[in-house]
Amino acid sequence: MSTETVALGTRRGRAGKSDRRGRRFFIGTAWTVASFAIGVILWQVVAALGVEGIPGPLTVLRRGIEMIQSGLLIGDLLASLGRVVAGFVIGIAVAVPAGFLVGWYPVVRKLTEPWIQFLRTIPPLAMIPLVIVIAGIGEAPKVWIIFLAAFLSSVIATIQGVTSVDSVLINAARVLGASNMTIFLRVVVPASTPFILVGMRIGLGASWATLVAAELVAAQQGLGYRMQQAQIYYDLPTIFVSLITIGILGYAMDRLLLSLEHKLVGWQDGGRK
Amino acid sequence: MSALEIPLDTKISFRNVRKTFTVRDSEFVALDDVSLDVGDGEFVTIVGPSGCGKSTLLTIAAGLTESTTGSAYVDGKPVQGPDPDRGVIFQQYALFPWLTVRKNVEFGPSLKRVPRARRRQIAQHFIDLVGLTDFADALPKMLSGGMKQRAALARAYAADPKVLLMDEPFGAIDALTRVRLQEQLLETWGNDRRTVLFITHDVDEAVFLANRVVVMASRPGRIRDVVEIDLPYPRTADTRLTPEFVALRERVWRGVYDQ
Question: What is the mean pLDDT of the segment spanning B5-13?
Fold first, then answer.
């Protein structure tokens, strides 16, 4: 293979790929729009048939606009987002170093493994009464619950990442003269990054999942709190607006993590990309 | 046994190496009393059926496995753990998948705190040597098996080892590419005469490459025969067709398979 053909081949390949990628993106978007439109139409049909209490898309849209104009939705959104982000970020910040420690040192692993296996079987929501007693009813208990949810899934993923690093890569570094610290920083950390990112995505899902329940604890604001209030007054449109907002926020944050994943672990062979 | 009994021009020695594994309460003898000397600048291949302990022998020389009794020596000093003086090539390539070819090759020099500019220079030299100039900034996932193994070779050369320990390096590579890699490896070896210990299960490959072929037998793993390959270098595709080559290959073949 001559240098020239390789270079030409690459250039042509790249141009062709971006064309194809553009078209694929367009087709993908078209399918998404179609799927969305069909969903909204079905929703309208179900609402028009008069299924008990279900508001139509237009009613929900109108309520959404009202809630935006009154500032209610933004306030709830920021309150909820603040709790999720705080709990999630603290959870990851503690889970990743802890996971490395447990995964890397067999002694620490043997001592902590039974506890982690035991604690993970307790749903974070079951901790609510305990957390209220300890942390009161301010912001702290809500962040605590979300922290627990994010921490547990991320710490387990990190441990798994560290313990499943291919031993041949560790040996390759050792025979080149790497010290244990170098192996940890330059082999174990990058090799376990894909696991950590998967753990973060699961942790984010768990954070949103616990949000509503966490906001049952004497909140004054928040999407979960708003739904609780709406339930008392049989106000279905408000519940729908809150649900859709939670869905959109969760989806956006998941996409954010996914693009981080593509950037950080694009070196992985195969996969869905 | 003392290291003094090792002949002076010897690079790698195994002295009464025994390695046993305990599998479910029963003892399995992977290597039984293996002694072998590899001379400075020599190319020795070890061939044998699977389970004869040939890879275990290599990992003992690499310092990645400890022998049960007996020792491996390099330059007369007993092997204690891995050392950049002993470069290892693995069958699974073992490139760091998150680093480009260039960064992989720079890994060894970077550990020795070689300045960045010099590191680049060294990496470029060995990337060119193995013919990966156009793929220096590619990630391993974009390379074929043969290219990955050439990148792994460049990485090993860049650490400037005194000996190369190669563990079935071409085992997972297609036949045609394998022949090319063998010829390239011999060419490089012809230039620098770096001692090579090469493990393979391919009789043809063992005879084609080596000054000496060590034939091993299994259960327990031991040396069965040592065959001198007095074919002249450089060896080419034609070498494989000579009656001498065919005869040597047959002898090694019998040693491996009439067990």
Answer: 82
Tell me if B54 sits within 8 A of B221, measured CB to CB. Answer: yes
| Residue to test with chain A: of B64, B65, B107, most A Cβ within 10 A | B107
Rounded CA separation B43/B212 (Å):
7
Strand runs labelled E in B86-194: 86-89, 163-167
Backbone CA torsion sign across B176, B211, B162, B5: positive
Torsion angle (degrees, nearest 10) of CA B193, B175, B166, B188: 20
> What is the chain A residue with the closest CA to B100?
A267
CA-CA-CA-CA torsion for A59, A63, A65, A66, nearest 10 degrees?
Answer: 140
Structural domain that includes position A19: 1-54
State the pairing for strand pair B222-228/B212-217. antiparallel
Q: At a CB cut-off of 8 Å and minimum separation 6, what does B29 contact?
A: B18, B19, B20, B219, B220, B221
The backbone torsions φ and ψ at residue A16, rounded to the nearest 5 degrees and listed phi first, read -60, -40
- Residue A272, in any domain of the structure: no
Same domain membership, residue A97 and residue A6 = no
Tell me: the pLDDT tens digits for B139-170? 999 999 999 999 999 999 999 999 999 999 99
Using a CB-CB cut-off of 8 Å, the residues of chain A touching B99 are: 267
Compare CB distances from B90 to A172, A177, A182 and report the shortest one's residue.
Answer: A172
| Same structural domain, A80 and A211 | yes
From the list B66, B91, B87, the residue with the least C-alpha distance to B78 is B66
What residues of chain A lie within 8 A of the CB of B90, using their CB?
Answer: 168, 171-172
CA B87 to chain centre: 9
pLDDT in tens, A211-256: 888 887 777 889 989 998 998 998 999 999 999 999 999 899 889 9
Class of domain B1-82+164-174+195-259: alpha beta
* Contact (CB<8Å) A172/B63: no
Q: Do A174 and B107 touch (CB under 8 A)?
A: no
Beta carbons of A177 and B83 less than 8 angstroms apart:
yes
Q: Is the pLDDT of residue A272 over 50?
A: no
Q: Is the pLDDT of residue B37 over 70?
A: yes
Contact A168 B92 (CB under 8 A): yes
Q: Is A182 within 8 Å of chain B by CB?
A: yes
pLDDT of A4 over the 70 cut: no
Q: Is the dihedral of CA A145, A147, A152, A154 positive or negative?
A: positive
**Is A177 within 8 Å of chain B by CB?**
yes
A6 contacts chain B (CB < 8 A): yes
Do residues B169 and B192 lie in contact, with contact meaning Cβ atoms separated by under 8 Å? no
